[in-house]
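Work Package 4 report. The design task specified in the project plan requires that, given a folded chain encoded as structure tokens, an amino acid be chosen for each position. We show below one input record used in the internal validation round.
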């Protein structure tokens, strides 16, 4: 390139283009770092390693506590909805709590019980097969009902969730 063609202090066009490319990459990197910095931390029910550290009772206790939290959230949403303009922020917070808590129940059922604890019988045994199917149906019922708890503020769904959790515990401990 003939540098003599440019006036004193002027940059060649290629230099300007490179500066723009570098600036765009820098801005994209900052944006990506910003997304990472604001991403919520995710807490799982238990590790997905075969660690052998299980506390089934603690998982059931946690899910039953979640069902109680969902019940309270639904009650609060109903009460605060009497004056939604005044209580919009609180209603939003209770809805978010209800959804997060219902997701936690689904996560424990999926990631702890279905993935790690409930095992299919290795050989045909009618009683073991029936127990396995009963556990799968109960777990599925909990997943569907936790979804319904997210979709509505109907306390009947929260009551049903608690009942299903208690039934699942009884079947699991057989």
């Amino acid at each position: 390139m003939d540098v003599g063609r440019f006036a004193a202090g002027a940059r060649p066009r290629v230099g300007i283009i490179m500066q723009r490319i570098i600036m765009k990459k820098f801005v994209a990197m900052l944006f990506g770092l910003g997304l990472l910095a604001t991403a919520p931390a995710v807490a799982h029910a238990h590790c997905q390693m075969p660690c052998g550290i299980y506390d089934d009772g603690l998982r059931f206790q946690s899910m039953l506590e979640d069902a109680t939290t969902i019940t309270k959230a639904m009650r609060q949403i109903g009460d605060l909805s009497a004056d939604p303009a005044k209580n919009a922020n609180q209603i939003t917070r209770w809805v978010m709590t209800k959804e997060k808590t219902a997701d936690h129940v689904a996560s424990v059922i999926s990631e702890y019980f279905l993935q790690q604890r409930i095992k299919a019988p290795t050989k045909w045994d009618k009683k073991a097969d029936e127990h396995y199917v009963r556990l799968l149906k109960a777990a599925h019922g909990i997943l569907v009902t936790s979804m319904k708890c997210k979709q509505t503020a109907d306390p009947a769904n929260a009551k049903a969730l608690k009942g299903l959790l208690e039934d699942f515990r009884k079947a699991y401990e057989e």
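Residues 39-45 have pLDDT under 50 and may be disordered. Validation will be extended to a larger panel in the next phase.
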